[in-house]
Specification:
Blueprint: E1 2-14, E2 17-30, E3 35-44, E4 50-63, E5 66-78, H1 88-109, H2 120-136
Antiparallel strand pairs: 1-2, 2-3, 3-4, 4-5
Helix pairs in contact: 1-2
Length: 138
């Protein structure tokens, strides 16, 4: 696997709560397995909250005509915003962000250069419905 340093920002919001994490990490590919990972950390200057994340990805063949990109996301928060990270609604919010990240990666892989950036309200609403569906499934 190769390892390349990367830097960037991640903006997220849940209702009136807004955070902009700035940080750096490592991007690594294993071309033999069509897999890799992104590991990094960052912080939100306004709240002092720190975010650590690890994303594993792998391209798996479905059939002769297509493939699937499989993502696994783990994250941890420390600081002022961490108190919100324990609730099921915030886990649903994180799942929605991961789903949108996957959709954006799929767009890129198919040659579409337009990246979706949803409004905070629509993201919150989809997260709420995801949370309700999870409750109903218990």
């Amino acid at each position: 696997m190769s390892g390349d340093r990367i830097a960037g920002t991640l903006q997220a919001g849940l209702g009136p709560i807004r955070a902009r994490f700035t940080g750096q990490g490592t991007l690594s590919y294993d071309s033999d397995r069509f897999a890799g990972y992104i590991a990094g950390e960052g912080s939100d200057a306004t709240t002092g909250t720190r975010l650590q994340a690890h994303i594993d990805f792998q391209v798996e063949a479905v059939d002769d005509a297509g493939s699937v990109l499989v993502l696994s996301v783990r994250y941890g928060l420390r600081g002022a915003l961490a108190q919100f990270a324990r609730g099921p609604l915030v886990r649903a919010f994180a799942a929605e962000i991961a789903a949108q990240t996957g959709a954006n990666l799929e767009r890129r892989l198919t040659g579409d250069t337009e990246i979706a950036s949803p409004q905070a309200g629509s993201l919150l609403l989809r997260s709420f419905w995801r949370w309700l569906r999870a409750l109903a499934g218990r």
